[in-house]
């Protein structure tokens, strides 16, 4: 009797060990990298360049989809060299006014006025109107990188003007001066979260019909990684890869939740943006749950549980 029990125990342990191994298997994914053609619209502001170019910036940054140019076909394998927007880890500058925070005011954008310019508040943007999507297993996750030129400067646009983008999931571009408070939203327009991306955030977009188990697993992993995260439903994600993690210049499309791949992505690309700052935002319309501090200034991204600042 005793040995039978021990036998079961051992079997159980072997099973646990095997399933752990299975979970830790090397993750694979497809990679697509897109050069953002600098000559078209992207400003190349060298530190010595005092020209007025960026004041004339019309707010579009890629060739129009309609004119037949497909920047997606221009791809190039690069090593992470100097030419593209892989910024080094943050150097905290004390007393530095975040660029453009002077236009956070009630005549330009206070994060409260004329919000319907970016989103009409429709429930269809955050409600599942069809059956839930189950994980798709016969495809791989897809990592898409927009190779943003290092000297690209994104404009701040007041609420008097609309901002349009050439991609359903822009990974960089002009945005609103008042960025979003970090955390989970009923719905947050892209004109806001793009600004958070510029500060080094990770944005999790999910289709409202994504199976709740997938949403909960990805949310839990992201929330435990860093303070600077945004979570919002978004209907313009692909249905076969309904969860997308976005950082400045990068998109990881997931057909199922692979927490190892996701945390690798977050560790690699979070906090490597144009103006990294951990300051919380001003916009909090429909914020459901504010983000928690994980490590001061997010220096320690996706730390093991015992190293989290917010542990109880
Ligand atoms: C508000 O922001 C706009 C746009 O940057 C600026 O022109 C204006 O001077 C600001 N107003 C105040 C009162 O700071
Ligand atoms: C809301 O959903 C509609 C219909 O799918 C879409 O056209 C629109 O772009 C969405 N709005 C936002 C702000 O995502
Ligand atoms: C809000 O919209 C109204 C009407 O279009 C406009 O007159 C006003 O200047 C706008 N205010 C802001 C802060 O965008």
Automatic annotation (TrEMBL):
GO cellular component terms attached to this protein's record: cytoplasm
Pfam families listed in its UniProt record: DUF3105
Domain of life, source organism: Eukaryota
UniProt key word ATP-binding: no
Keywords for this protein: Signal
InterPro entries hit by this protein: DUF3105
Signal sequence, start to end: 1-22
Stated name of the protein: Tumor protein p53-inducible protein 13
Lineage summary: Eukaryota, Metazoa, Ecdysozoa, Arthropoda, Hexapoda
């Amino acid at each position: 009797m005793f040995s039978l029990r021990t036998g079961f125990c051992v079997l159980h342990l072997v099973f646990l060990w095997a399933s752990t191994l299975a979970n830790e298997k090397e993750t694979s994914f497809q990679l697509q990298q897109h050069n953002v053609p600098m000559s078209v619209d992207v400003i190349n502001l060298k530190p010595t360049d005092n020209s007025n170019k960026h004041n004339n910036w019309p707010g579009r940054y890629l060739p129009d989809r309609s004119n037949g140019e497909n920047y997606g076909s221009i791809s190039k394998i690069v090593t992470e060299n100097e030419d593209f927007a892989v910024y080094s880890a943050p150097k905290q500058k004390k007393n530095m006014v975040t660029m453009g925070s002077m236009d956070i005011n009630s005549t330009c954008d206070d994060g409260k006025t004329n919000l319907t310019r970016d989103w009409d508040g429709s429930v269809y943007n955050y409600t599942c109107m069809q059956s839930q999507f189950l994980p798709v297993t016969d495809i791989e996750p897809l990592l898409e990188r927009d190779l943003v030129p290092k000297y690209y400067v994104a404009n701040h646009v007041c609420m008097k003007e609309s901002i349009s983008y050439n991609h359903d999931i822009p990974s960089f571009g002009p945005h609103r001066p008042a960025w979003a408070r970090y955390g989970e939203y009923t719905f947050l327009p892209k004109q806001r979260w793009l600004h958070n991306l510029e500060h080094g955030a990770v944005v999790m977009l999910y289709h409202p019909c994504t199976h709740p188990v997938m949403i909960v697993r990805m949310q839990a992993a992201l929330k435990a990684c860093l303070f600077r995260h945004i979570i919002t439903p978004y209907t313009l994600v692909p249905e076969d890869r309904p969860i997308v993690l976005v950082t400045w210049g990068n998109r990881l499309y997931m057909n199922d939740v692979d927490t190892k791949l996701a945390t690798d992505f977050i560790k690699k690309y979070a906090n490597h943006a144009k103006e990294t700052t951990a300051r919380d935002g001003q916009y909090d319309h429909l914020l459901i749950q504010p983000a928690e501090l994980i490590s001061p200034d997010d220096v320690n991204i996706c730390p093991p549980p015992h190293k989290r600042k917010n542990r109880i």
